[in-house]
């Protein structure tokens, strides 16, 4: 069965510092991988996704992630965070090649402090 | 509107009451998904429609949960005899088809008291 593990439930960081949010998945087949952001009382917004091709994926708001098949990881990174990046971030893996039928991790709350 | 619209945004129900949650997908989107997000958790898949056909309902937690999309556009998630454990945010998402990006609505927060 497929699953997603987000290793950190909360990540506090100072403004303009770099950040990495970790995600590991388990799957016996090829997967699609996603990162979503959720602001308070909002739905999910897609940050970036890996479907195939280059393992380094660039997304919106300066975020990027690297697909590492051998380590079954898809960590999210940003070199310099802003206060406005404070939100909850979810890693997800697809089922059966669908980009809408997803298994999500439990989320990581990123708190950016001035 | 341009995005996925869900109504109501907030719903308080007394235990045992039936509720209906509505999702208006993006116009022309064939695929529609429902998710349940409990407090402090990630979203969990409930069910999936392709047009009016419900192709996957494996995530519905009990037979009290029922979803429909009779004309292939608007969808309703119905929960009968609500229980406290049904309290959660219910998210709807739609996509052009099965294998394109899904766009999420803002969700309906259901509180069962």
Descriptors for this entry?
heterodimer, A: 114 residues, mainly beta, 6-stranded mixed sheet, 4-stranded antiparallel sheet, 0% helix, 51% strand, B: 113 residues, 7-stranded mixed sheet, 49% strand, globular
Would you kindly provide a brief summary of this structure?
By secondary structure, chain A is mostly beta strands. Chain A has strands at 3-5, 10-14, 19-21, 24-26, 33-38, 44-50, 56-58, 64-68, 73-78, 87-94, 102-104, 108-113. Chain A has no helices and twelve strands.
Notes on the protein architecture:
The complex is a heterodimer of chains A (114) and B (113). Chain A is mainly β and 114 residues long. Helices cover 0% and strands 51% of the residues of chain A. Chain A starts with a strand and ends with a strand. The mean pLDDT of chain A is 93. Chain B has 113 residues and is an all-beta fold. Chain B has no helices and 11 strands. In chain B, strands 2, 4, 5, 6, 9, 10 and 11 form a 7-stranded mixed beta sheet that branches. At the A-B interface, strand 6 and strand 11 of A face strand 5, strand 9 and strand 10 of B.
What secondary-structure arrangement, pairings included, does this model have?
The complex is a heterodimer of chains A (114) and B (113).
Chain A: E1 3-5, E2 10-14, E3 19-21, E4 24-26, E5 33-38, E6 44-50, E7 56-58, E8 64-68, E9 73-78, E10 87-94, E11 102-104, E12 108-113
Parallel strand pairs in A: 2-12
Antiparallel strand pairs in A: 1-4, 3-9, 5-6, 5-10, 7-8, 8-9, 10-11, 10-12
Chain B: E1 5-7, E2 10-13, E3 19-24, E4 31-37, E5 44-50, E6 53-56, E7 65-68, E8 75-79, E9 88-95, E10 103-104, E11 108-112
Parallel strand pairs in B: 2-11
Antiparallel strand pairs in B: 1-3, 3-8, 4-5, 4-9, 5-6, 7-8, 9-10, 9-11
* N/C terminus separation of chain A: 41 Å
Poorly predicted runs of chain A are: none
Number of strands of chain B: 11
Outline the biggest β-sheet of chain A: 6 strands, mixed
Helical amount of chain B: under 10%
**Category by helix and strand content of chain B:** mainly beta
Q: What integer is the average pLDDT of chain A?
A: 93
- Average pLDDT level of chain B: 95
Q: Give me the count of strands of chain A.
A: 12
